[in-house]
Amino acid sequence: MPLRERRKPRPRRLDAGPFSADIASFRLHLAAEGKSPKTIKVYTEAVRYFAGGHLLTKTGKTRWEQVGVEDVQRWMVWLLAEYSQASAYVEYRALRQFFRWWSGEEELPDPMASLRGPRVTQKPVPFFTSVELSALEKACRGNTFAQRRDAAVIAVFRASGIRLSELAGIRCGDLDLETREIKVLGKGGKERTVKIDYEAARRVDRYLRVRAKHEQASRSSLWLGVSNRGPVSAEGIYEMVKRRGKQAGVHVYPHRFRHHFSHTSFDRGGAEGDLMELNGWTSPQMLRRYGASARSARARRSYDRIMEDWIALT
Questions:
Q1: Is CATH 1.10.443.10 the right assignment for the domain spanning 130-297?
Q2: Each residue's pLDDT tens digit, 239-265
Q3: What is the pTM of this model?
Q4: CB within 8 Å of 31: residues ≥ 6 apart
């Protein structure tokens, strides 16, 4: 099966012109509420995109009080035609947060007060098959620095389901291979401890032995670059995983391991509270999605057992 290529993102017009000052104030508001830098970036860029990509270029409006419900609706229709439902919904949520803040600050009507967000069709959770995991493991097989490092990265992703940023931020002092525990820094700067299995611990141990010979082995960051380069960024790990996936013939990206981990936990009867703790979730919303995925898988297995017994009796 050919690998699916990610569609090249459309250039976003982010020059908000006369709207920029209010967007800067909105940024300050989000920071004061303790929102993460990533959330602040996503929210403010969405508002800038609405201002620069729609209001200034398509309506000629230059003040927020001129914005009506039709402007937001037309923008959502355009986004849904150009992007996925999930991406359009993120843009909608960002605009909703902005107009709630702006209407409260200026004591003016919120143009989005009566709007409902675009419907997002729930897609199946993209977990791995055993064949795909085996292919990824084979793609990293070997004793070079890159092979040992990449095998360790993929093994930790698979065994823990941690986020890309969390894995990239692991320091050598965060590891305890005897207890198979890793301290990670999650969203909002919240630290938690995750577990890995024995296979992942073995892969990390093999990597650490070759890492000790690296010219920058004294660096605190766990993941180092080849040819004695320094720490690998989250973007570098993303590209590495993508490259190994292409080599193995598997459509893979870091967050797919998180899907796989969560689905597998439910499928094997893991407790909801345990999964929330391990994944660093504060809302049970994601539990419903992965719970449905696991129930579907169990139902299919149950069907096979029932039909086998029925055939045996006929």
A1: yes
A2: 999 999 999 999 999 989 988 888 787
A3: 0.66
A4: 40
